[in-house]
Amino acid sequence: MTVQYKVLKPHDVQAAQSHQEFALDVLLGLSKSPKALSCKYFYDAEGNGLFQKIMELPEYYLTECEFEIFRDHRAGIAELIGSSRFNLVELGAGDGQKTRVLIEHFLGVGLVFRYVPIDICEEAVEELLQALEHYFPALQIEGLVSEYFVGLKWLSNQVRDRNVVLFLGSNIGNFSHSEARVFLYSLWNALNDGDCVLIGFDLKKDIRKLTMAYNDSQGITAEFNLNLLRRINRELGGNFDLDQFKYYSAYNVYSGAMESFLISLKQQTVCIDMLNQSFSFDPWEPIHTESSHKYLTSDIIELAEETGYEITEQYYDSRRYFVDSLWQVRKSKAT
Ligand SMILES: C[S@@+](CC[C@H](N)C(=O)[O-])C[C@H]1O[C@@H](n2cnc3c(N)ncnc32)[C@H](O)[C@@H]1O
C-alpha cells in the first residue's frame, strides 16, 4: 500500500495549536467592527459534509463546469504538463472528486507523479486518501493536514522535484485581489522555474445566476454558514442561538464578489466560555463569513503577469462560466 497520511507536526501539538488559532481568530473577528469570521473555519467534519452537498446542488454550477473542463481538456492538460516526473500538489483539495478525472487520465497516459493533497480539514484529507486508495491503489500519495502557507513552506523544503500545483474550485475567490496577489507571489516563491499551476477562477456572469448559486432552495448553503456558529458553540463553549441568526448573501457590484453574512435577528449577547468573553449584537447586525470574488479574463491575465507567471492555456467550460487557467512559473519575469 502506497498511501501515506502525514501531519506536519506531532498530532496533539498541531490539534492544540489549531484550536488556539481558531479561538484567537474568533476573538479578533467578533471584536472588530464590522464583525467577521474567516471562511477557512467552515470546514470541520460537519462543514466538510455540507460542502459536499453544496457541490451536488443544481444551483451550484461551479462543480459541473470544472468537471466539464477536465473531461474535455484532460488530454491537453496532460500534454502541456509534460512527461518528466513531478509532484501533483493540490491546495485545499477537499474531496478531490474533480481531481480524480485528471489523476485517472495522467495515470492512463503513463505520467509519473506523486499526489500531495493539502487541506486544513483533517476529515477531508482522511476521506480523500481512503477514496484514492480505493480508486488508484498504485498511486503514490502523501496527504498533508495544514494551512496553505504551512503546506507551501513544506513544499519549498522538499527535494527539488518538478511541481504541478492545483488550486481548484474557486478557492482563490476567497481572497481579495490584493490577497490573491500576495498568495500567488508566495506560491511563486515556493516553486521552481518551469513549475506549473492550474487555477480555477469563477467568472463574472449574470448576477441572478451568481445569487442563486449562493442562495440554494434547499437552504444547505445557509446551514453551511450557520455551522460556523455551531462549531464555535461546540469547540469553544459558545452559546449562539442559531435560530436568532439568518444567512444572507448578495453580489457586491463594486468588489465583484458574492458576499455572505450571518445577520443577528435581535439585540442579543453571546458568551464564549473559552474566550471568557461576551459579544453583543445589535438587531440586524451582520457577521461577514465569506467573500467569493468573480473574475474577468483580463483580471486573470493581469494577475499572472504581476506575480511572475506566464499563462500557458485557458480552459473554459461551454457556457464560459468558469475557467481553469494553466500557468508556468517564470523566475526571470519576477516583479
Ligand atoms: C470550497 S472547498 C473546495 C475544495 C476543492 N478545491 C474543490 O474544488 O472541490 C475549499 C477547501 O479548501 C480547504 N481550505 C480552506 N481554507 C484553507 C486554508 N487556508 N488552508 C488549507 N485548506 C483550506 C477547505 O478545508 C476545503 O476542503
Summarize the structure.
This protein has 335 residues and is an alpha/beta fold. It contains ten helices and 14 strands. The chain starts with a strand and ends in a 6-residue tail after the last strand.
What does this structure look like?
The chain is an alpha/beta fold. Helix 3 (61-81) packs parallel to helix 4 and helix 6 (148-156) packs parallel to helix 7. The protein contains ten helices and 14 strands. Helix content is 41%, strand content 27%. Strands 1-5-4-3-6-7-14-13 form an eight-stranded mixed β-sheet, sandwiched between helices. The longest helix is centred in the first third of the chain and has 21 residues, at 11-31. The structure holds S-adenosylmethionine. S-adenosylmethionine binds at residues 40, 43, 51, 92-94, 98, 119-121, 124, 147-148, 168-169, 171. Residues 40, 43, 51, 92-94, 98, 119-121, 124, 147-148, 168-169, 171 line the site of S-adenosylmethionine (SAM).
Q: Provide the spatial order of strands within the biggest beta sheet.
A: 1-5-4-3-6-7-14-13
Low-confidence stretches: none
- Largest sheet, described in full? 8 strands, mixed
Evaluate the radius of gyration.
Answer: 20 Å
The residue-averaged pLDDT reads 93
The secondary structure category is alpha/beta
Oligomer: single chain
Strand content: 25-35%
Q: Shape from CA axes?
A: globular
End-to-end Cα distance: 44 Å
SSE series: EHEHHEHEHEHEHEHHEEEEEHEE
Number of helices: 10
According to DSSP, the number of beta strands is 14
Helicity, as a percent range = 40-55%
Bound molecules: S-adenosylmethionine
